[in-house]
Automatic annotation (TrEMBL), chains A, B:
GO MF, one annotated term: DNA binding
Keywords (A to Z) from UniProt: DNA-binding
Signal peptide interval: none
Source species taxonomy: Bacteria, Bacillati, Actinomycetota, Actinomycetes, Micromonosporales
GO terms classed as biological process: response to stress
Domain HTH marR-type: start-end pairs: 12-148
Record keyword Transit peptide present: no
Name assigned to this protein: DNA-binding transcriptional regulator, MarR family
Sequence ranges of Basic residues compositional bias: 158-168
SUPFAM superfamilies the UniProt entry points to: Winged helix' DNA-binding domain
Region (Disordered): 149-168
Keyword GTP-binding: no
DNA sequence: GCTTGATCGTTCGAATTCTAAGCAAGTAAG
DNA sequence: CTTACTTGCTTAGAATTCGAACGATCAAGC
């Protein structure tokens, strides 16, 4: 089938829609649990989880925003909320006086530890339960490659940093 | 996450994060294009696309909201915007006086036709370009099953009008 | 030192989104 | 027909989100 307009075939369209629909449904489900179990929105959970997962438990605002795919101003707002609850602290970086280092507090770590089992359980139940055989391996591999591809090809969506795109 | 608790293994966690990250990045990218090319948000595009794709070009508000995974009030708001722009019309259903049938206008169809090629091209470029071999088939199959699974297991997000009576 | 330009984070205003409450219309039981 | 319950959509108000504008800091170049 050599059609002049290189669009998407039915299979591709189906996969695209399924991807967006699954991610939406999954986000709704886990968001509900996080709010009930720890009074956290999904974004807040992502922020804290990334911090807990980082080497020193701290990250720059910009890197955090890039990581969770979020606007800078939105992160400022959420960081304000999380700081008010004592889950993170903010301090200007010693190296870069203009950048702000965000650090998880013990309370933040405790909260993540508290909600993580239930969170993970929901994800397992909704996302991984219907998978069979090599589904998981393939899915992880493909999506990983796609992520790399998207991060390396910034159309204009997220602008990580202008200077160093190739040096990763 | 170096904790081998009975939750998700590293591979599952990676796939989960990749899924959410890819969908976010993809949504940002296509949203940007839709705004530039047709002054449409991603949600508005989804609404119009679903209508165009429906048999008569019309759907009930509720079915539309369930389809795009959106709150009822949010849909009311967006429908108001789209109606004001002449892209859809709203009229009470003859059968059920309380339900509202939303119909795409010719202008709505024309707008979707106008933005669709560019939209599809972006999706192809970002999502399907890095895929090889049977990646697409597997991805579509798995995500389709997962979607079915999630739709059949309503945590609370959408209630597709089934006999599920649980009075508290 | 002193410019020029880029980067970092916040603030501001407008737009969007959600939940809860409300109203209208259908359904079931008596 | 009336009462009670359910469903479909809208309204009201608060919370969240983004982009643009802003001040502050760094990095080069002179």
């Amino acid at each position: 089938m050599s059609d002049p307009s290189p669009g998407l075939n039915a299979e591709q369209l189906g996969a695209y829609f399924a991807l967006m629909e699954v991610s939406s449904l999954l986000q709704y489900a886990v968001d509900e649990h996080l709010r009930a179990d720890g009074d956290l929105s999904y974004v807040q959970f992502q922020i804290l989880a990334r911090l807990v997962d980082s080497p020193e438990g701290r990250l720059r605002m910009t890197d955090l925003a890039d990581g969770v795919v979020y606007s800078r101003s939105g992160l400022t707002y959420q960081a304000g909320l999380l700081e008010k609850r004592g889950l993170i602290t903010r301090a200007p970086s010693p190296d870069d006086e203009r950048s702000v280092m965000v650090t998880v507090t013990d309370a933040g770590r405790a909260l993540i530890a508290h909600v993580l089992p239930g969170h993970v359980e929901r994800v397992r139940q909704l996302l991984f339960e219907p998978m069979r055989g090599r589904d998981l391996v393939t899915l992880g591999g493909v999506l990983g490659r796609v992520r790399e591809h998207m991060r390396a090809t910034p159309p204009r969506s997220a602008k990580p940093r202008a200077g160093r795109n190739r040096a990763e």
